[in-house]
Amino acid sequence: MLKRKSEYNNHGEKGIAIILATLTICIFGAMIGLAIDGGIAFFLKARLGQAMDAASLAGARSLARGADIGTQAANATTTAQNYFAANFPNNFWGCTVAAPTVTVWEDSVNTHIRYVKVVGNVTTPLYFMRVLGFTTASLSSTATAQRRDVNIMLVLDRSSSMGGNGAIGPSIAGAVSFVNDFAAGRDELGAVIFGANYYLYQPTVNFQPGLINAINQTTSSGNTSSAMALWVAYQQLANLNQPGALNVIVFFTDGLPNGITSDMTKYRVRTGIYNKTTNPLGNGVTPQCGDGINPMVGVFSQWGGFAATGSTAGFWNPTTPGNIVSDSNDGSFSEDISNDAGCNFKTNVNNMYEDFSRIPDYDYNGLPTWQAATGFPNNGGAWNYTGGWALTTNMYYQMTLPWLTTAGSGCTTPYNSLTGFGGVGACGLQSPWMIGMASKNAADFAAQRWRNQPLNNIVPKVFGITLTEPTGEQPDPMFMLRVTNTPSGFDNNGNPITNPIYSSTFPTGTYVNTADKGELQQLWHSIASQVLHLSQ
């Protein structure tokens, strides 16, 4: 029987189809296996990279522990390996995981920068590729993080309101926890602890345990001479002259600036001594306050809660006696300046205004107290402002004419051309409101000055923490935004506000506020975390 040709061909085609199907299964199976194994490897590679990043960052942060580079490197190595193990443990997805290699070194040019390099290797099993003879694959990743040394000055308010509202204890605990987050031997920490006068703990790498002890000895007393405290703190950073380090000021307060430090020599009543009861016009030839030879540098403040009229006081030494941390007599007549012969404030601090003719145009450091009518900003003082940034429109508060007259300030003392007493000047010294606003202006201008006309090119990053308490003067959010160079925030009523002098040219700061004393330690820790993050 004869068969047609097509029947013979069908048998051949069936054989070819089987071969082609087998080849297709092998090829596509290998491709699918490669895709699956490759996908797993890709996932593990990404996870390895994340673990390496976490390890290097944690290692860099741990450089804060240890007094020397050897101890710090050992801490960084242990921390980096622990973080790596937590994020990529052995046998993760069947992988064989070796401990990562950690290397720590200093920058050869900028010795204020240290690096942590972490190198990790894992072996991952292959599943489908075994048919092709591949059983495992090696994955590796490298991550490097840096940490800049940090120079920090704490500016800590210890004024009397801190004790009256029970905030001194929580504020101490918060500041202590902050200090403990940094590396003795590398980071330099110091503090200005202030009321009316101030105590200075100069920045040093050997801040443990001295700075902790100083903070723990803090007690509350005195007023709030913020301008002096801020500028003294800044001068310490400028004196270190380390632009390669991260320079930071952390400013804590529970109220408003209300004290000014100034050399009042040229503001003494020129002839005679004014007495508001027996000699209201200052007539007579009684020797003037002070010896007329030595400077009269001291602090005066308001005790009237920013009222138009009320108690004002002075004239005290600007530093704590014997450089003790806290001064329970801060603000009393027992600590007035030594050059006090013939001065009314010698026996009654509230009569300070009888000894001087006016609020000074500038404080002791050349920071303006108001838009001085005699040609601000280049009318003398201790500083020459240049560059066009020191504008009267940039003053925190421009004192308008009514407040500079006897009627506007509630002061009725007439001006006496013979003594130089009365009128604008005397009314200012008798007005808690005017002293308060002058204090704000000087403190605000301290921050403007270190940003626009820095010493040794040191422009610090500023963090602000305030505590709003149920009694006393509440912190001013706008003032804090300006000092910290924070672009916006909220006022005490929760309304959004914008900082009119904010500039992205300078380090943007951070300002936080709480009404809960119990949150202070958490806020301090948050600021420490931000500083450490910035140092990386």
Structure description:
The N and C termini lie far apart (92 Å). The longest helix is centred in the N-terminal third of the chain and has 57 residues, at 5-61. The protein has helices at residues 5-61, 69-87, 160-164, 168-179, 210-216, 226-240, 423-429, 432-452, 477-484, 520-534, and strands at residues 96-97, 101-106, 113-125, 136-148, 150-157, 188-194, 198-204, 246-253, 259-263, 297-302, 312-316, 461-467, 488-490, 496-498, 510-514. Among the domains are: 19-147, no CATH class; 150-257 and 460-534, 3-Layer(aba) Sandwich (Rossmann fold). Helix 6 (226-240) runs parallel beside helix 8. It is elongated and about 125 Å long. The protein has 10 helices and 15 strands. Strand 13 and strand 14 form a beta hairpin.
Indicate the topology.
Layout: H1 5-61, H2 69-87, E1 96-97, E2 101-106, E3 113-125, E4 136-148, E5 150-157, H3 160-164, H4 168-179, E6 188-194, E7 198-204, H5 210-216, H6 226-240, E8 246-253, E9 259-263, E10 297-302, E11 312-316, H7 423-429, H8 432-452, E12 461-467, H9 477-484, E13 488-490, E14 496-498, E15 510-514, H10 520-534
Parallel strand pairs: 5-6, 5-8, 8-12, 12-15
Antiparallel strand pairs: 1-3, 2-3, 3-4, 6-7, 9-10, 10-11, 13-14
Helix pairs in contact: 1-2, 4-5, 4-10, 6-8, 8-9
